[in-house]
Amino acid sequence: MxxxxxxxxxxxxxxxxxSEIVQISEAARGLRAQGxxxxxxxxxxxxxxTPDHVIExxxxxxxxxxxxxxxxxxTPAMRAAIAMDAVRFSGFxxxxxxxxxSTGAKQVLSNAFLxxxxxxxxxxxxxxxxxxxxDMIDFCEAVLVPVECSGNADFRLTPEQLEDAITDxxxxxxxxxxxxPSGAMYSEAxxxxxxxxxxxxxxxxxxxxxxxxxITYEPFVSFRAAAPDLADRTLIVNGVSKSYAMTGWxxxxxxxxxxxxxxxxxxxxxxxxxxxxxSQAAAIAALxxxxxxxxxxxxxxxxxxxxxxxxxxxxxxxxxxxxxxAFYVYPDCSGCIGKTTPKGDVITSDADLCAYIxxxxxxxxxxxxxFGLPGHFRxxxxxxxxxxxxxxxxxxxxxxxxx
Length: 403
Fold this sequence. Notes:
Layout: H1 20-33, E1 39-40, H2 52-63, H3 76-90, E2 99-102, H4 105-116, E3 122-127, H5 131-139, E4 143-148, H6 159-165, E5 170-176, H7 188-199, E6 205-209, H8 223-226, E7 234-239, E8 252-255, H9 258-269, H10 277-288, H11 292-313, E9 328-329, H12 350-361, E10 363-364, E11 366-367, E12 377-380, H13 385-400
Parallel strand pairs: 1-10, 3-4, 3-5, 5-6, 6-7
Antiparallel strand pairs: 2-8, 7-8, 9-12, 11-12
């Protein structure tokens, strides 16, 4: 097709591109197309199926005729189920008016930033952080203020770092616990220490992404439960994607003060309107149905975590911390930087190392630079134990060939 006019991106979209996670997945797909047996550990998606009763809940809703436009804020039944779930698992009791249902947790975050952030406003982000956070902030023409949280601090933000990062332009503190990509978890004491700092700065709001709440190997504490007096400044983000293996259903929610939720509903109303009625019915079935699968699947992830951490720590040049939650490890690979490949190429960065492991070891990993803290890589262990064993062996063999 011939274009009749020159295409021009908007300024706000000029820097947006496919995430490095997607780019690596596509590179792995290209190698597979050549007949190579590539293992991809780059995506954060449970390998478990959506539970049968959840699928049945969706089918029954469709048969009942629940296929018309849903309320923009979410159906009353969905918001009631979310409120019940918060009481049961998170230790606080929100009013349904404090809840918005969106097309995935990612849209909740986008709604919040679009509804509250002006150009030049600052958002504090502990690094490493999930890649999409940075792009959302950039799209809103806000300023990302990354705060490096090293492995020596278990990848967690300290109160001193938070205090130093806050300015008059700070609009939000972005927390993710358990965290992607590090699996880091904030204890109740950690959250209360951060809350002590925030109480001194009433212009700063807190968004806590708790999407991995049920994939935890240490006690989980919601920020709103740890600091209930800050509820009028707190947005909790959650959903069914990770815990109930419902990534494709695209259903997430936010819990926050009603003035914020109303502003987010207004934004959502002019983009997607309400989340899929069928997905909401499925999510209700997930939240109201049997919950034993949460512990069963978490135990399976724990077994995989323990295997991967042990395997990688036995590889010279790698040092892998034990994550407290989620299904990622974020090993330090600085011991491999500066080494030379069998072809004579020097490994100068984590990106070089991941490219080498992909091409020579046929394992796709995501370099730490994508998450704002280079010198590491992310490996998702949301895969079968057989694939993890094969993949870790390939990584070890590839790194053993470095000089």
